[in-house]
Amino acid sequence: MVNQNLGLFWFRILQSVVMEGGESSWIIHNLCNMRREVSALDSYPGFIDEASIETAIISMDSVLPDDVLERILAYLPIASIFRAGCVCKRWKEIVKSKRFLWHFLHGSPQTPWYYMFTSSDEPIGYAYDPIPRKWYGIQLSCIDRTGWLPACSYGLVCLMDTESQSYIFVCNPVTRDCKRLEKPLGSKFSDYSAVAISVNKKSHDYTVALVKSKQVPDNFVQWDLSIQAYDSETRMWMNCLNEVLTGWRGGDESIICDGSLYFLIYSTAGGMGAPENRHALVKYNLSTRSSHDLLIKSFIPVPCPLTCGRLMNLKEKLVMVGGIGKQYRTDIIKGIGIWVLNGREWTEISRMPQKYFQGFEELDDVFASSGTGDLIYIQGYGSPSLLTFDMNHGQWKWSQKNPVTKRFPLQLFNGFCFEPRLEVLP
């Protein structure tokens, strides 16, 4: 028998989509008289959601024209759209069409997902959708192992190989389209590297920025720092800056926000500032790509002693999530705060309530955190527990429990936040 709840769902969607067109009575009349039973809908191979796959779906091929069906399907969540594309050839062609993408863009807004690696050997994991509070199994087809540094922007994910630092891919995790970029300039391996990506929402062109930091030979306080930028339109890398920092080194944390590249640097012996303040923020203007001014002039102090700092672009506002160190033991985390940068000043938005902080099974002084839109995700490396913070409502909430459990004490979990989008391709 056709699932009654699913039938009611389609009934309401039909009412809302076509009521103004005057065709609703004809469509609903035919829909209510349908008696065809159809086979179970297979899940999209990239999304494994066995607990929620419907056992049946109403076939409307005989009563709905393409334009109406496009508008109906555009209201579905992305995971359901891909399942709908497996129903028949006609539906598959519809969800792949440019006209459908237009309806999709003007339909229900999509919230950011969080992808969590669940294996230290394979690039497999689960993506969390906070609206239905469900996890979907996804394999990143462009990589063959874990150990890749991620960066995300407007539906695209940039992945850099941390071993050789010469393999960089840009992919859409939802459509599974992937592209390998040209190798960055120079082959010299760096001690630390950070990658960031920014996608133009209109043209879908993108910029990838790469920050490399390498210790000067036989010198413990000086570090060579370089910045390169890749333009998807020209398909070329450009060397933007080379500079020697004294007492500071780069790391693996960077973000592009409002045309500027921001990255965290870390104090070493002989560094500037108080010894307990181990972090600082650097701003580099990617729009002008000027190297006349020294980076030291753009140093922005962090708001307090941090054990860990994570940068993210939330609606072109630079946001930092950081572990707050204890007063006399700055290497021990006592809480997690969220700040937004206004000019050169930090404003604290929220501090994780103690009940959530204590709710992590294992939370070291280093943790994973990323976000986009109004949503921030935080997770500890030693546990699949995932916490969300809604910037718009100031609300903390645990995610639905991840379907994967910890199998051995040293098992680690990591992840990144991305926007699920259909129209952006690498």
Automatic annotation (TrEMBL):
Keyword list, A-Z: Ubl conjugation pathway
Q: Any keyword Coiled coil?
A: no
The pathway that the record names for this protein is:
Protein modification; protein ubiquitination
Q: Which domain of life is it from?
A: Eukaryota
Q: Which residues form the F-box domain?
A: 58-105
Q: PANTHER family in the record, alphabetically?
A: F-BOX FAMILY PROTEIN (PTHR10706), F-BOX ONLY PROTEIN 31 (PTHR10706:SF130)
The protein depicted here goes by the name F-box domain-containing protein
Organism encoding this protein: Papaver somniferum (Opium poppy)
